[in-house]
Amino acid sequence: MGATIPWESRLELHDLYRVEVDPAICSYGVQPETLYWRNGEMRRRYTPDRLDVLADGSERIIEVKDVFDPAADPDYTEKLSQAALIYKALGRSFEIRDGAAIRSEPSFSAFEEVQAYRRAIVTVDDIAGIQRCLRSRPLPICEVLRSMRGAHPRPTLFALMTRRVVSIDLTFGLKDATLVSLIESAQR
């Protein structure tokens, strides 16, 4: 997002790697707000780890936990359930992301590598070139990299992903056959 973002745990930072390159997420905020409510006589308070604003305009609240075992702390689990209901009433989805999902390989290493180049320089010629290359269909990353001009095609391609020009399917990591496609808004 072009700004320094605070994080409370390494796991939150690792999930931010994914968020920084996920083309479905337009923007996000960490600890965006605090909810206050009453449940009977009990006062409740909840501050989520993150709010994601998605490309379709919807919003998603994210809670990051290394391991989430609902039975380990029934009171906390109940608080999260109540917060999820409040967010649902506000038109937001609620998701708990655990360490296993965040660190799953080979996608985690791919997200980490791509976001490491988020500040690489991208020129107007780079954008025009990638639009020409991918205009008709998605291509394997090896073909896209061969078609790119410049001394550093890989960092440039990854920076184009963080700038929401291209989407790279990182589900299975970064392999020669990994597909790269233009993001619809970048096709104009």
Describe the model.
- By secondary structure, the chain is an alpha+beta fold.
- It folds into two domains: 10-102, Trna Endonuclease, Chain: A, domain 1, CATH 3.40.1350; 107-187.
- It contains seven helices and nine strands; from the N terminus they run H-E-E-E-E-E-H-E-H-H-H-E-H-H-E-E.
- It has helices at residues 10-21, 74-89, 99-102, 107-116, 124-134, 141-147, 153-162; strands spanning 25-30, 35-39, 42-46, 50-54, 59-65, 92-98, 139-140, 166-168, 179-182.
- The strands form three sheets. The chain has a four-stranded mixed beta sheet with strand order 1-4-5-6, with helices on both faces. The protein has a three-stranded antiparallel beta sheet with strand order 7-9-8.
- Helix 1 (10-21) packs across helix 4 (107-116) and helix 4 (107-116) packs across helix 7.
- The chain starts with 9 loop residues before the first helix and ends in a 6-residue tail after the last strand.
- The model has no long low-confidence stretch (mean pLDDT 92).
Give a quick summary of the entry.
The protein is α+β, with helices and mostly antiparallel strands. The protein contains seven helices and nine strands. A four-stranded mixed sheet has the order 1-4-5-6, with helices on both faces.
